[in-house]
Amino acid sequence: MNNLKTALSFLLPVLLSGCSFYSASAPVAEYYYLNPDKDLSAIGRVAIVELDNDSSYPQISADVTEMLFQALQKKQIFGLTVVRQNAPAWRSLQVDLNSRYTLAELFAIRKTLKCDAVLIGTVTEYQPYPHMSIGLRLKLVNLADGQLLWALEQIWDTADKTTEHRIKNYFQREMRAGFAPLREQLVVVSPLRFVKFVVYEVSETLRHKR
Fold this sequence. Notes:
By secondary structure, this protein is α/β, with parallel strands linked by helices. It is 40% helix and 22% strand. The protein has seven helices and seven strands, in the order αβββαβααβββααα. The chain has helices spanning 2-16, 60-75, 88-93, 103-113, 161-174, 180-187, 191-205, and strands spanning 32-34, 45-49, 52-53, 79-83, 117-127, 133-142, 148-157. Strands 1, 2, 3, 4, 5, 6 and 7 form a seven-stranded mixed sheet that branches. A hairpin with a 5-residue loop joins strand 5 (117-127) and strand 6 (133-142). Helix 2 (60-75) packs across helix 7 and helix 5 (161-174) crosses helix 6. The radius of gyration is 17 Å and the shape is globular.
C-alpha cells in the first residue's frame, strides 16, 4: 500500500494536468507516464545522467545507470549518452535534478551535453538481502520546451508475488526454453541479474503503443 501511495504522489501533478498514465494492466512496470502528444522516436539524442542515490549502497546508482543505458540501447528509439555526475560538463551546469528547469537552464543543458532530452532520476531505495528490492524514480525531459516526455516511479520487491510472476514471464520471453526455472532462481539471488530484470521492465514502458 505504501508503494502505491508513493507512486501516486509522484504522478499526481501529471493526473491533475489532464494527462494519462498506464496502470497495473500493463505487463511491465506498473506506474508510469508516457506523453501522448510526443513521439519519442523524434528525439535525436538523450543524455542519461547518472542516477542520484538515496540508498546506503553507493555502487548501485552507477550499476543501474549502466544497465539502463544498455537496455535502452537495445530499443533503438533514440541516441544515448551516459553522463556521470562527476563529469566536468555536468558539474559545470550546477542544476538540481529535483527542480523544474528554467528556459535558460534547459538551453544550457542542451548545449553543454549536446542532447535533445535528458533522463534523470534517483535510486530511492535498494536492499540486496534477505530479499532483494529496489526503488526507482525516473523522468525524461524535453530540453526544447521543458515538457515531461516520460516518467516512472516504482519499487520492485522479490518477496512480492506480482514481481515473482513478472520475473517468470521475463525469462519465458528472454531466455531459451529449458533454462527458465534456473534463471528465475538466479534473479532472486543475484543483485546484478535482478537489476537487469528491473531495467528491462523500465525500458519496455518506453516502447508501449497506445
